[in-house]
Amino acid sequence: MFDTADALVLARIQFAFTVSFHFIFPAFSIGLASYLAVLEGLWLKTGRQLYHDLFKYWLKIFAIAFAMGVVSGIVMSYQFGTNWSVFSDRAGPVVGPLMAYEVLTAFFLEAGFLGVMLFGMEKVGRRLHFAATLMVAVGTFISAFWILSVNSWMHTPAGFEMGANGQFLPGDSWLAIIFNPSFPYRLVHTVTAAYLTTAFVVGGVGAWHLLRDRANPHARKMFSMAMWMAALVAPVQIFLGDAQGLNTLEHQPQKVMAMEGHYESHPDGAPLYLFGIPNEKEQRLDYAVGIPKVSSLILEHSLDAPLAGLDTIPDDEQPPVSIVFWSFRVMVGIGFAMLGIGVWSLLARWRGRLYDWPLLHRFAVVMAPSGFAAVIAGWITTEVGRQPYVIYGLMRTADAASPLDAPAVGSSLLAFIVVYFAVFGVGVWYIMRLMSKSPQPGEVGVKRGDKGPIRTAGFTPGPTQNPGDGEKLPRGPHEASRER
């Protein structure tokens, strides 16, 4: 079946598939962990049961999303060794420690407090439980910090030196590696995207229940909080995206050329193409619809600023323009749609119709998954725009792959597709089922099973009984051994 396929292409498809599946869960859990911390903090401050109900409601959803994020992320670590062993060998001295720091800090922090957060509400004090929730939220941010540091270094490598065997070795300062030139911009932009992703999911769920019952107090509170987030953070996210774009222009100009569809150079100001069909064979943008000189205004803050095009880049150095061009427009389009609904919500709030404007609620329901589409489109723009390099300017993707035959990669790809859609499809279905039910007063959070862990030694706890009530007490292991 895969005898005529390209092993490199299959390896890239496999990693893209697993990363895309994985990315949606951290993008949700990062924002949702912070939202849970806000809800619990408001409950402790105000004492309102409504915040406690919402906390318990979203805690169940967070537990499932967090678990699926962890499981889907483990697979990618194995792919570094199976499909990308050359990359692992050469970049391991730099990339390996950063990924280990993520485990030693973020993962251990989350694992240490997650159990208290999920099951400890009735077993520890309120302040201690709130501290555990905060630690989980901080852990999700730290995880994003290290992973984005690794990925950003691959885009803007810094602070390294080349070893005699061709390995990338740490230089004099790890800070130069961690805080590489693109990292601060990408960290802030990505984490903000995670917060917006969660806000639109919460807003969509709140809108869904408002359409069914406008007087639902839980739905009102969810929708109101989400729309404040959209109105305040969406414009900030657009500004952050612009800042990252300027940083990308400085360090990866051909990526920006592909994003803008600039096949040709523009010495007197470049147009902003709103639409067009990239023709990579002829190196032109067919059916282009653009605004003259606006691209130069955005990127160089001058209408007449010259901008170089892909005609200055060798053909074998150019990224796949069609993919980057369209994924960038999907991301930007969704971003402005988010801004639009945020402004719309402000108008509805000002007119006193935030909770009884059905058209706004229907649009919010449609926009509920928009954050996931935006983050995946942004990831595609970023990663495909880096091609043909895996470490920008230094190591080509074709030189990073393992020496595997196509059938070996293709068979594992098919297995991933089947398992992922089966396992995570069920998980997503269950999350949506939970969301379809409205929060209730006295909401029940995550429940433990009736049976505890299996004990391999010691006494097995049983019901407390008095020796004189005619029932035997549980036997200890030494008594049982003497009777035998």
Automatic annotation (TrEMBL):
<feature type="transmembrane region" description="Helical">
    <location>
        <begin position="98"/>
        <end position="121"/>
    </location>
</feature>
<feature type="transmembrane region" description="Helical">
    <location>
        <begin position="359"/>
        <end position="380"/>
    </location>
</feature>
<keyword id="KW-0472">Membrane</keyword>
<dbReference type="Pfam" id="PF01654">
    <property type="entry name" value="Cyt_bd_oxida_I"/>
</dbReference>
<feature type="transmembrane region" description="Helical">
    <location>
        <begin position="413"/>
        <end position="432"/>
    </location>
</feature>
<dbReference type="GO" id="GO:0070069">
    <property type="term" value="C:cytochrome complex"/>
</dbReference>
<comment type="similarity">
    <text>Belongs to the cytochrome ubiquinol oxidase subunit 1 family.</text>
</comment>
<protein>
    <submittedName>
        <fullName>Cytochrome ubiquinol oxidase subunit I</fullName>
    </submittedName>
</protein>
<feature type="transmembrane region" description="Helical">
    <location>
        <begin position="223"/>
        <end position="240"/>
    </location>
</feature>
<dbReference type="GO" id="GO:0016682">
    <property type="term" value="F:oxidoreductase activity, acting on diphenols and related substances as donors, oxygen as acceptor"/>
</dbReference>
<keyword id="KW-0349">Heme</keyword>
<feature type="transmembrane region" description="Helical">
    <location>
        <begin position="57"/>
        <end position="78"/>
    </location>
</feature>
<dbReference type="GO" id="GO:0019646">
    <property type="term" value="P:aerobic electron transport chain"/>
</dbReference>
<dbReference type="GO" id="GO:0009055">
    <property type="term" value="F:electron transfer activity"/>
</dbReference>
<keyword id="KW-1003">Cell membrane</keyword>
<dbReference type="GO" id="GO:0005886">
    <property type="term" value="C:plasma membrane"/>
</dbReference>
<keyword id="KW-0813">Transport</keyword>
<feature type="transmembrane region" description="Helical">
    <location>
        <begin position="323"/>
        <end position="347"/>
    </location>
</feature>
<dbReference type="GO" id="GO:0046872">
    <property type="term" value="F:metal ion binding"/>
</dbReference>
<dbReference type="GO" id="GO:0020037">
    <property type="term" value="F:heme binding"/>
</dbReference>
<keyword id="KW-0408">Iron</keyword>
<keyword id="KW-0249">Electron transport</keyword>
<feature type="region of interest" description="Disordered">
    <location>
        <begin position="440"/>
        <end position="484"/>
    </location>
</feature>
<keyword id="KW-1133">Transmembrane helix</keyword>
<keyword id="KW-0479">Metal-binding</keyword>
<feature type="transmembrane region" description="Helical">
    <location>
        <begin position="15"/>
        <end position="36"/>
    </location>
</feature>
<dbReference type="InterPro" id="IPR002585">
    <property type="entry name" value="Cyt-d_ubiquinol_oxidase_su_1"/>
</dbReference>
<feature type="transmembrane region" description="Helical">
    <location>
        <begin position="192"/>
        <end position="211"/>
    </location>
</feature>
<feature type="transmembrane region" description="Helical">
    <location>
        <begin position="128"/>
        <end position="148"/>
    </location>
</feature>
<feature type="compositionally biased region" description="Basic and acidic residues">
    <location>
        <begin position="469"/>
        <end position="484"/>
    </location>
</feature>
<keyword id="KW-0812">Transmembrane</keyword>
